[in-house]
Each structure stands twice: as C-alpha cells, then as structure tokens.
Amino acid sequence: MEGKLEAICIIPERYNTDRFGTFSGEIERDADAITTLRKKINTALDEFNVDVGIGSEGSFGPHPFLPLTPADEELVMLIDRKNNFEIGATYLTEETNYTQRIIHTIEELKQFADAVQFPSHALIAKTEEGIVIKKGIDNWHDLLQIATRQDLGRNALCVETDMRAMHNPTRMKAIEKATQLLMDKILTTCPNCDAPGFEVKEKIQGLSCSWCGTPTQLVKSLIRKCWRCQHTVIEEKIEKAPPQYCEVCNP
Fold first, then answer.
1. CB 3.0-4.6 Å disulfide test: which of 47, 127, 203, 226 passes with 190?
2. Residue 4: burial class (beta carbons within 10 Å; 0-12, 13-18, 19+)
C-alpha cells in the first residue's frame, strides 16, 4: 500500500476503537457499519492531527444471498480531508468461522473448538447469561481452565469465535482482499479529469440466470461517477448469473 500510494502509513498507538462497538457485545455499535467506519477514521484524524486516514469495519451475520450461511462483510475506507473526498471498498465472503454455541460438556467444547480452527483462531468465553469471562483465548490450557472454573457439566458455558482481526486469521484475509479492492479503486482515475477513485456509485440488480434467463438479485450493471467533475460511465456485465443465485432454479 505504501509503495502504490507513495505514502508512509502509521498505525496510531493508544487509539481505542472499542468506543465504537465491540464484537463481544459489551459496547453496542450505535450506527451502521459505514457510518461507524467514518466516525472511527474522522476521530483518528482529529486526535492525531493528520489529513488522510484509512480504516476498516467488519460485520457478521446471515449471507444476503445464501440462506443459513454465515457471512463476513468487510469495509475499508480512505478519507482525504485536504482534498475533501472519501473512497470505500466492500468485500463479502462466506469464508468465516463466525459462530457461537452454548456448551454443556468438555466433549462438546472440544468439538466446537476443533470446528472453528482453535487455537489458531481465538475464542471468547461467556457465562450462559452473556457476561464475558475472557476474550482472546488461544490455547487449550486457558480454555480448559475456564471450563473447570465454571464447573462445566453442572453449568453451561457460552463460547464464541473472537472476531477481532488480530485473533482471527480468516478475517485478516478478508480485510486484505477488501484493502486490495480499495487500492484498485484509488488507482482507477477519472477518464475526464484524472481524479483518483473513479468508483462505482450505483449498482443495478437483475443479472440474468445462465440457465433460465430469470433476473436475479446479482448486479447486471455498474454506474461509475467522478467525485470531482461528475463524469459518469455505465458498465454492463456480459456474464450470466450462476443458477445457485436464481430463485427459479434454486428456490
């Protein structure tokens, strides 16, 4: 990133992002992901007195197109106050270990931990009522010690994946891909005025199914618009939608 942008990236120390919401639930995120991300970046710009900032924000939940499938949506954004513009990128993937479970036995705990790639991916332990016991659990000794202290067997334990990026390599890969998309956007310049970030401003759904031709929820055309001169280009997709996204072929 530094080489492509010809910039020096500095990770601020002592910057508390938990104030904007925590994955473990102690602090609720009080706005949608993109609003929270803007607030996170702008607060950092204010606190550290700089003009340009890049940040990320993740959301986890049901996949918008694949029923019963968990998804990770990563947002990455650059804000340039000096030139008064922002550029963002989104990456959606079903490659995530995001889940939680109420555990009653050591055997259930081991099965759950193995399924979510523990210990390379850390866990969060909570009481059955949702009170956090410990976050960032990344070894069997600590996990089993918590299970013993909670008297697992007599009491239940709520265990969930720790979705903070530094504790979740799978999420790190998703953020990396979102960042690559952001870099592509920044380096895509307007054909009219050469401003960076000639990005997609609107997506029109209705891409036809490759089997039956029925319009799907996938995007069929992209509308790019320059933030500086308002030059606009419409790009129509040539490919067809896989039948797995079709409500007729895959109801």
1. 226
2. exposed
